[in-house]
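Protocol step 4 of 6: structure prediction from sequence.
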Amino acid sequence: METLMRLAGARAGMPELRLQAELHDAEGRWIGRFDAVDDKTRSAFEYDGEQHHTSRRQRRRDPRKHQAARDAGWRLMVFYQENLLDDPVGAGRRMLSFSGRPGQPVRPSLARLLDERSGDGTESAVPFTGFGVQHDPLR
């Protein structure tokens, strides 16, 4: 799901994010590892899967980690499964808006990969229609 979050951002024109980023405060103390960050805008993106709800340890750790990141000047956006599966286009747009970055055109070669469909008749878990394709590889 972290990959789907990153791909939703890429599809919306989000610049490359630093993945599995370890953040530290001004004194160098480790805050935690975050799924993806935009260092330029100090925006952090997290996917909270089932373990964030079923593990007492995780539920207790997350708020402290998130607050420590905010205290260090980072902004945090958290996604859940339904955000990414039900509306990947919206998720990518929210990432852009949250970071304050303008969408960058998606290179045609990357757009083709992001829009690629299986050739064996299987269906993707993520609907690819409506991604705002800037290049139609079928034309």
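Step 5 (inspection) to follow. Residues 56-71 form the longest helix (16 residues).
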